[in-house]
Predict the 3D structure of the following.
Amino acid sequence: MKIKVNEHFFEIKETYLFSTIAKKVAAYSKENPDKKLIKLGIGDVTRPLAATVINAMQKAVEEMGRAETFRGYAPEPGYDFIREAVAGYYKNFGVSLSAGEVFVGDGAKSDIGNLPDILGDNPILIPDPVYPVYVDSNCMLGRKISYLYANRENGFLPMPDDTLTGEGYVIYLCSPNNPTGAVYSHAQLKEWVDFALKTGSLIVFDCAYEAFINGDYPHSIYEIEGAKSCAVEIGSFSKMAGFTGTRCGWSVYPDELAVNGKKLSSMWSRRQSTKFNGVPYIVQRGAEAALTKEGLRESHENIEYYMGNARLIAELMREKGIYFTGGVSSPYIWLECPNGMKSWDFFDFLLEKVQVVGTPGEGFGVGGEGYFRLSSFGSREATEEAIRRMKTVL
Ligand code: PLP
């Protein structure tokens, strides 16, 4: 063919982290069909959806089966009922949003990955290690990325410093962080908001793990004064309510966010109405139910279950004297690989010795080399069995 392709695709890692892991695991299983694997790798939930969510979705299915209540294409930004429900949820954090500032989509990954569509060629700041989608979606467009290194010294919470002398940055922040579990305090987020306001920058705040926060930390960047003039926030029902396979999330584009009088919310709306046809009605009804008092209570029981797993994994790390973070306001345990092992070597070690699958820290950025992520999203039985096995080799 004589067409040109987007050459920037060759600048990103060839395969997505979890595809690489899946391939390695498949190859191991093929060679060792008798060995039973325990997967504490990918951050996928395992607990069923809350009864309140299921009931709401069943009712919506019935509505779809009757001519009088059938629905076709959903409005691209979401039905009013879900936009209002999300705006209402923010009241729990003392944040006042209008339903029109909430844009519902099919999950945080899409919204994060598609956001660069409405931005020009700005300098990009991304923490390292972090959820890989921020880096890859910007690389695909040939954007210039600078990394904010997160490490033991800064508590895995990079802050603005004197080296950042430019302006007009797009800054990605993820709190609680995937993979490290680190959470920004109010004071730290205020420093970022002040920096963004001073330098005319945009913060993209990913609060996908907000529901896991345990302690006095901001659940939303809009708890910080001034954030509505410099931050987009992206949230998800995936981890808070088990929607990883059901698919629903949201982006908040406050009215104040504008460049030369052009509102980012209007641009996002335009982008979505061109390339996206809305979240299914049935799913939106489920998501709405997840935000009711009962829905939140039921989903919280699942979060408690996962955090019980996290405590067990953390206990093992303490017992073995392995340095780790996370597991308190996040479902992930981020540990230093023992004996100075590299991330992928430790991955192979656990896979081959005890058939436990985790995620190599290096997959989240060069700053993750030498670290490893264990997820608490497995069943209690699987987590306990993984711990028993790891105890014998750590
Ligand atoms: N943001 C972070 C930090 C994540 O870890 C994930 C998924 O693991 C997502 C966003 C994507 O969530 P969703 O399932 O809503 O696409």
Q: What stands out?
A: The chain has two domains: 7-49+296-391, 51-293. Residues 43, 107-109, 131, 174, 178, 206, 208, 236, 238, 244, 249 surround pyridoxal-5'-phosphate (CB under 6 Å).
